Amino acid sequence: MIFWVVFAAGLFLAFLFRHLHFLQDARYVWAILKTRDRVMKCMQTNYSLLDRFLDLVTAQPLKPLVLFKDEAFTYRDADELSNKAARVLLQSGVIKQGDTVALFLRNEPMFLWLWLGLSKIGCSAAFLNYNIRSKSLLHCFKCSGATTLVAAEELQEAVEEVLPSLLDEQVTVFILADRCKTADVESFKDKMSQASSEPLSKDLRSHSSPSVYIYTSGTTGFPKAALITPAKLLTISCIYGQAGMKSDDVVYASLPLYHTSGFMAFAAAIDRGTTMALSSKFSTSQFWDDCRKHNVTVIQYIGETMRYLCSTPKKLNDRRHKVRLAIGNGIRADVWRDFISRFGNVKIMEFYGATEGNWGVLNYSGKIGAVGRHTFIYKRFFPYAVIKFDVDEGLPVRDSSGLCIEAAKGETGLLVCEIAAKSPFLGYVSDLQQTEKKRLHDVLKKGDLYFNSGDLLRIDEDHFIYFQDRVGDTFRWKGENVATNEVVDVITLADCMKEANVYGVEVPGQEGRAGMAAVILNEGQRFDSAGVFKHVESFLPSYARPRFIRIQSSMDVTGTFKLLKGKLVEEGFNPNQMTDPLYFLDEKDKNYVPLTVDMFNSITSGKIKI
């Protein structure tokens, strides 16, 4: 009798578990379909995120939109300040409807006023990473087709470094200062203080212009400008609402606004009609104090930020805050558990998506470590697949008929997403070659077309989806995507270098992968450690500089002459596993120093921070 009771109870619990997931799955798909329908209706009536903002200015003019340090800017303030910024650009005589303006700023309210102002006059904004310099800065500026650059005063030195090239292209350069002594560079703030704050004519707008260009490393070469249309921006703005953010929340944004993840918080604040507390940068020491100061209820994150917060010394007031919801991506399962255990019952909503991608998923079930759930309902409306992938060759595995093979449950494979009218892949600006590389033909049937995410995912037996790794020539470090080919292009320009193979290696206790370069030296040359350090410091942002260098006599390649990385990645930077000379980037000594066994142990134990 007891056996049958237990058996029946087990069946009931199993049914309840599956039924609960079915309800969650159906509810999520319904929410996504409603969002898609809403965006389509908005596009039919030319209703953009800017229109949503202007409606809120009318409905709640005195509600704070942005909190920054000790200042509060209402919706009306944001409207008037963006009107002023737009007029400065219009009155300069160099901006017309449909033009692109590049923004080179750190996190500050002016970034937001400029974007709103550009939207009001029918112009697109290109968000430049404020860490890039020299060749990368010029590349990112040029590929957007921008004719004007607006830069922060503290970034003026970086601008002056490339100013001759910009002037050769007849680019107008503004510096966000009251005055500027540099020839051929105009000041901006003094002009803005004198400009009118009256509303601008709606006739100035262009609904065919992209809303913004956001840069992504992709898989090869320099950063690429992903095109974000008004429709896509509206879709992105809805993610926080789908995750549970409400109109009375205060969302804390500490990630760079030039990132999709950072700007998404502002877009979501407009979508929900709520308030955003903006931080000039992410700071572990200021994070919770800012949350308490601004009564923050929702935080955004990437995996690295959550790990940094968990690694700080414990405090008595760790749970004294109002944060109820965390929205982001890239959090490890162990960090997820540590965060909740330490900082209280904060609901973590992990999602997966790519800036240029045409598909995303949200972990609405709260399964620790997962990015979402694989269901036939979701796949029916938003077709995708996880296919077998040859990591060494960097290609999908195909059968005798030339079609891709779906990965089995529990097997890691490449995520691909169908490209269709309702799920377009917009590609990269001025880079048709890289755009085409992201298109995968003849995937599940002849003639179909899918977006190659470049990400390896795994679906377990319970249908939960887990992010595993990135493939090809990109890895993630310090919250940034690093394009290995860009690092190769830079490091091989050092005098002693002949060839380089760049990849990411795991470091215990660290998110993502640290950069490592296996190199071959020019014949008869020795490794110029100090010279190479100076070279990478001059031409690469901090996160892209190889932390480790391995000197080799030859490179292993595949049958198609592609550099092999699998074995190198597996061996990592462990001097016990190789006889090749190893070097470690020492920022204090400004040099690459020999990596000893003792130093390796200190790095892996966390005594040496990288």
UniProtKB/TrEMBL annotation:
Compartments (UniProt record): Cell membrane
Gene Ontology terms: cellular component: endoplasmic reticulum membrane; plasma membrane
Statement: the UniProt record of this protein carries the keyword S-adenosyl-L-methionine: no
Ligase in keyword set: yes
Gene Ontology biological process terms from the UniProt entry: long-chain fatty acid import into cell
InterPro entries, per the entry: AMP-bd_C, AMP-bd_C_sf, AMP-binding_CS, AMP-dep_synth/lig_dom, ANL_N_sf
Domain AMP-dependent synthetase/ligase positions: 59-362
Membrane topology value: Multi-pass membrane protein
EC numbers on record: 6.2.1.3
Residues of the signal peptide: none
UniProt GO molecular function: long-chain fatty acid transmembrane transporter activity; long-chain fatty acid-CoA ligase activity; nucleotide binding
Stored Gene3D superfamilies: 3.30.300.30, N-terminal domain of ligase-like (3.40.50.12780)
Domain of life: Eukaryota
Family to which this protein belongs: Belongs to the ATP-dependent AMP-binding enzyme family.
PANTHER family reported in the protein's UniProt record: LONG-CHAIN FATTY ACID TRANSPORT PROTEIN, LONG-CHAIN FATTY ACID TRANSPORT PROTEIN 2
Protein name from the UniProt record: long-chain-fatty-acid--CoA ligase
